Amino acid sequence: MVIVKADKKTEAGVMPTEQELATMGKYNQQLIDAGVLVDAAGLQRSSKGARVGFKDGKVVVTDGPFAETKELIAGYWIINVKSRAEAIEWAKKIPFQTLPNDGREPEVEIRQFFEIEDFPNAPAEVVEQEKKHFGRK
Question: pTM score, two decimals?
Fold first, then answer.
């Protein structure tokens, strides 16, 4: 997963320009053409969201907005590649000038999903659930 950080503009609901959308669309098309794009989306500002947690034995719901924008996600790409190195190569091709940055240098974070094989002690029913519902090995 390639994670795009939020900034003050995305949190204010400022939408990308037509040119920014076109530039990002070209990058997305490269991912599609290479057969590596699984999913991608921009996320609505945190004022439209909520956090659900568990504190002192109770479920706690906190409505957005959330103050610290550098900790928020504005969007993501999920890509299916063979290695961390390949994911980094794709990230290097991102048109960074179109990413939220609010005056700081734009960056993305790359994180790998766990696969069921990463859990050798997974019960058989969990492994079957992964296969059935998620099409995983």
Answer: 0.86
